[in-house]
UniProtKB/TrEMBL annotation:
Biological pathway: Cofactor biosynthesis; thiamine diphosphate biosynthesis
A GO biological process held by the record: thiamine biosynthetic process
Protein's recorded name: Thiamine phosphate synthase/TenI domain-containing protein
Source organism of this protein record: Chelatococcus daeguensis
Ranges of compositional bias, category Pro residues: 117-131
Chain segments carrying region Disordered: 110-139
Phylogenetic lineage: Bacteria, Pseudomonadati, Pseudomonadota, Alphaproteobacteria, Hyphomicrobiales
GO terms, molecular function: thiamine-phosphate diphosphorylase activity
Domain Thiamine phosphate synthase/TenI: 8-87, 149-236
Amino acid sequence: MALPQPPLLLVTDRRQARGELVAIVCAAVAGGCRWVSLREKDLTEDEQVALALRLRDALPDDLCLTAHGSVEVARQAGLDGVHLAAGGDARGTRERLGRAYSLPPCGGGLGRGVMPPGEPPAPLGAPPTPSPSLQGGGEQGVPGFTGAPHTLIGMSVHSPDEAHTLNPGTVDYVIAGPFAETASKPGYGPALGVEGLAAIVRASPVPVIAVGGIAAANVGVCLAAGAAGIAVMGSIMRAADPAAEMARLVAALAGAQPRGR
């Protein structure tokens, strides 16, 4: 499926946040963000679901809200997708989410406007009942597979080899990084740089999102290397003015010349 527009993913981290997380995310959305992933892995599953629901209630309906790492958080909170760690089970994730809901496009939420009021989602073990337009995974579908085509499924990669093995029928995009040194994850492996990012882009069958040390000044460099978009965390979480910082990134993205898919 197509990436949210603009292709700029905000990953949350309340431990770095200068203020209350929901308020910071809302400010970033006011600055032009339309894609947010909840990444609060130190919280329990129930706490993540509760926070996801607070975000969903506070954010516009057309915003794509996903969960980092947890299929259950996405399923229970009715989110728009999941971002998996490198080597994650994308096919199984898509199937599990597809068995829980009949899905609208990303930005509509897995459950919003789908289940009758007061009726719980179907259990994960129940047979799926997709319409003919909801067959397969990804845009083209996987023969013989009934899943959730409108669920956005992403995966982290750190090398061309990891990117090369991906199935575009079940994975919609990858996040590659760190592009540059980053304060959010100090010591998190060597920076890819332009050549490393470009190598992953060449190997990947799906769009590549650059992450790690991303700033307005290097957005154009990332896109010139073939990235389809960017992801940010600390620069927004720590910003004195998240809306203004996000607006600068959105403007830089709009002004760059994209070469990625």
